[in-house]
């Protein structure tokens, strides 16, 4: 298979399996609470555990891919994800649930790093912004499908069936990976001695990773604790999941459209800042309003716009020879934020006695992004001035 758009479709589906598996816990959180006699704090910890391996694996993930190759690394990561789902599907012990979640997350981290690299291989220098916007949209697509499908499966067959469904979808990803081929122009890259990031570039990448992590923490609160919030109001699990999935389905449209608007206007950070402020306000409003569906629709239409501009920050300060290490730093910050965010949110929700506290934390996390965007621009400005002097 040598058509790059067909390759992108494969990468899109395979990455979708990560999001589907990630959401498998939050989609049936009320069921897990009853099955294992745990609270929202424990659910928040279990959700966040999925990203814990990223703190360790994000940096060496690229090196692992170079050693084993694209396809073997991808298949190994998918097998690790399946193993984690099977453990969670077959155990009634909470500690083993956590172990299975960690294993799944380890596979998801390796897969994220590898798929991003594979997509860049095919689209470098040609429509890469469009391709990456479509690629990123696989995450909300996977979460939205999970919110629609998994609550019904869990209600009918129990929590174990939910994790079996995640394993089955991941297995389809393995089949599709077998059709992947590297681009014709790809050549074996002899790793030269890695070039170190200069201090300002490193600082800029750290800030960019923090922005991406905080924004995703805020966004994750919607689909991680939104169903629990609606369940508190008397919604059924299936109805709550379907309502929250509106955000994800609409963001599938708003992510690529946001990238397009940013490119057309030439003001990506202005768009990202305005959209972030709007989403933060809507997140804080959601637990305090009865117009749930209208707010969810607005969040879906707006929340995807900052994704492209934020993802473009780190590459601005990374040369080709520093891109691997730089993106490793970027993803390490992202995974650290995504590990801590749901766990902290779960504890806050437990203390407050309502999932609304998690939504408030999400609003604060997104509200922190605009000042960090300003800081990033200042760092880049100083770096550019020093380069010219």
CATH class category: Mainly Alpha
Enumerate how many helices there are, as a single number. Answer: 18
Which structural class best describes the helix and strand composition? Answer: mainly alpha
Calculate Rg over CA atoms.
20 Å
CATH topology: Growth Hormone, Chain: A
Helix content: over 70%
Number of strands: 0
CATH architecture name: Up-down Bundle
Q: CATH H-level name... which superfamily?
A: MFS general substrate transporter like domains
Total domains: 1
Written as H for each helix and E for each strand, in order along the chain, the element string is HHHHHHHHHHHHHHHHHH
Distance N to C terminus: 49 Å
Model regions low in confidence, pLDDT < 50 over at least 5 residues = 187-193
What does the overall shape look like?
Answer: globular
User: Main sheet, how many strands, which sense, barrel?
Assistant: none
GO molecular function, one term: transmembrane transporter activity
Subcellular location: Cell membrane
Organism: Bradyrhizobium commune
Membrane topology: Multi-pass membrane protein
Give an overview of the whole structure:
With 389 residues, the chain is mainly α. It is 82% helix and 0% strand. It has helices at residues 4-26, 29-36, 40-49, 54-68, 70-90, 94-123, 128-136, 138-157, 159-177, 199-232, 237-265, 268-285, 292-303, 307-311, 313-316, 323-352, 356-367, 369-388. The longest helix is centred in the middle third of the chain and has 34 residues, at 199-232. The chain is globular and about 65 Å long.
């Amino acid at each position: 298979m040598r058509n790059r758009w067909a390759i992108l479709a494969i990468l899109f589906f395979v990455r979708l399996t990560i999001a589907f598996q990630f959401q498998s816990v939050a989609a049936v959180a009320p069921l897990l609470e009853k099955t294992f006699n745990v609270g929202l704090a424990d659910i928040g910890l279990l959700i966040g555990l999925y990203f814990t391996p990223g703190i360790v694996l994000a940096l060496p993930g690229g090196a692992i891919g170079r050693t084993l190759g694209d396809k073997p690394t991808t298949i190994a990561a998918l097998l690790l994800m399946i193993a984690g789902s099977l453990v969670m599907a077959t155990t009634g012990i909470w500690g083993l649930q956590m172990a299975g979640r960690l294993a799944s997350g380890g596979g998801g981290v390796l897969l994220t790093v590898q798929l991003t690299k594979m997509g860049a291989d095919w689209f470098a220098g040609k429509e890469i912004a469009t391709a990456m916007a479509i690629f990123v949209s696989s995450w909300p697509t996977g979460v939205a499908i999970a919110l629609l499908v998994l609550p019904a499966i869990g209600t009918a067959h129990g929590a174990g069936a939910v994790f079996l469904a995640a394993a089955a979808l991941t297995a389809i990803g393995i089949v599709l990976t077998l059709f992947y081929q590297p681009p014709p122009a790809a050549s074996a890259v002899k790793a030269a001695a890695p070039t170190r990031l200069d201090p300002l570039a490193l600082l800029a990448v750290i800030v960019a990773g923090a922005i991406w992590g905080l924004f995703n923490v805020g966004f994750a609160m919607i689909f991680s604790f939104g169903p629990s919030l609606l369940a508190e109001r008397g919604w059924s699990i299936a109805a709550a999941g379907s309502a929250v999935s509106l955000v994800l389905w609409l963001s599938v449209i708003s992510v690529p459209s946001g990238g397009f608007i940013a490119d057309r206007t030439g003001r990506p950070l202005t768009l990202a800042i305005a959209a972030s402020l709007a989403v933060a306000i809507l997140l804080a409003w959601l637990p305090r309003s009865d117009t749930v569906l209208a707010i969810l629709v607005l969040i879906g239409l707006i929340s995807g716009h900052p994704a492209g501009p934020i993802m473009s920050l780190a590459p601005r300060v990374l040369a080709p020879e520093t891109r691997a290490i730089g993106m490793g730093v970027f993803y390490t910050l992202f995974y650290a934020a995504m590990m801590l965010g749901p766990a902290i949110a779960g504890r806050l929700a437990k203390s407050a006695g309502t999932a609304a506290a998690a939504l408030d934390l999400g609003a604060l996390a997104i509200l922190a992004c605009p000042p960090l965007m300003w800081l990033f621009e200042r760092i880049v400005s100083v770096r550019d001035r020093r380069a010219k002097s």
